[in-house]
Amino acid sequence: MHETAISIKAPHKYFGDFRALKDINLQVPEKQITVICGPLRSNKSTLIRCINGLESFRSDKLDVLGLSVGDDTKIMDQVRKRVGMVFQSFNLFPHMTILENCVLPQIRARGRDRAAATVEATEQLKKMRVEIHADKYPDQLSGGQQQRVALARALALKLEIMLFDEPTSALDPEMISEVRDVMQDLARADMTIVCVTHEMGFAKAVADWVILMAQGEIVEEGTPEQMFSNPKHQITKEFMAVVNE
After folding, report:
1. What is the side-by-side strand order in the sheet with 33-37?
2. CA nearest 196: which of 22, 38, 29?
3. Each residue's pLDDT expressed in tens, for the chain with a length of 245 residues
4. Taking Cα atoms as reference points, which of 59, 74, 70, 67 lies closest to residue 26?
C-alpha cells in the first residue's frame, strides 16, 4: 500500500477573471509515476506549478510530503529541497557552463561540496549523453541537448518528488525512449514522479496512473489500460480517438 505523497483538495487558480483550475481533488501516491494529459489549454502545467508553489492559488488544502504548500517561506524552502521540476523551457542559466548549471543547484539546494557535486553532475550528464558539452554554454546546444541537460540537473539533486513538464517535447524518438527508461528507474528507486505530457505513447509506456484534464478540471483518471482501452467519459474517448489516429 503506497502512502500519499501529494494531496490536493479543491485548488482554484485564476488569471484575472479566467478560472484556470476548478475543484481539483487528487491524491498522488508515493513511489509511482502519475501522468497528466489532455487537450491544449487544459492547464495541466499550471497544476504542477501549483504543487511546487510556483503559482499562487486558492485552496482548501494542498500538501506535499506532509507540508502545506502556501505563503509560508520557511515551509516552501523545505518543499523545494525535496521536490524538483524539469521545465518545458529548460530554464538553464545562460551565463554558466553546462557543468556549472548542474553543479551549482546541488551546492545551493543540497549543501554538497563542489567536488561531490561535480562528480554527481558528470555522472548524470553522461547518463543523458551530453557530457561532451560540459564546458559549453546553453546557447551553444540544440533544444534537445538543453532538455537533456535540464534532466541531468534535476536528477543530480536526488530529490523525493520530480515534476516533469513535457520532458520529451524537444527530443528525438531514441531519446524519448531513454527518458522513459530514466523515469522508470527513478520510480523503482522510490522516487515519486508527476509528468505532464502530450506524447501518449510515452504516457502509456511509463505511467502507473493516468489523469486526463480538460478546461482546468480532472475529467477521468485510471490505469493506463483503462484510460487507453476503455475510457468512460466522452471527453476522454474523443481525446484518445484523436491521439490514437
Report:
1. 83-86, 161-165, 192-196, 33-37, 209-214, 217-222
2. 38
3. 568 999 998 777 888 888 889 888 999 999 999 999 998 889 999 999 989 888 888 766 889 999 999 888 899 888 888 998 888 777 899 999 999 999 999 999 889 999 999 999 999 999 888 999 999 999 999 888 888 898 899 889 988 999 999 888 777 887 788 788 888 887 888 889 999 998 888 888 899 999 999 999 999 999 999 999 999 999 999 998 877 65
4. 59
Q: Specify which residues 211 forms β-bridges with.
A: 36, 221
SS (H, E, C) the chain: CCCEEEEEECCEEEECCEEEECCCEEEEECCCEEEEECCCCCCHHHHHHHHCCCCCCECCEEEECCEECCCCHHHHHHHHCCEEEECCCCCCCCCCCHHHHHHHHHHHHHCCCHHHHHHHHHHHHHHCCCHHHCCCCHHHCCHHHHHHHHHHHHHHCCCCEEEEECCCCCCCHHHHHHHHHHHHHHHHCCCEEEEECCCHHHHHHHCCEEEEEECCEEEEEECHHHHHHCCCCHHHHHHHHHHCC
- Measure the CA–CA gap between 89 and 80, rounded to whole angstroms: 19
- Which amino acid type is present at position 162? M
Contact 160, 191 (CB under 8 A): yes
Tell how far CA 230 is from the center of its chain: 26
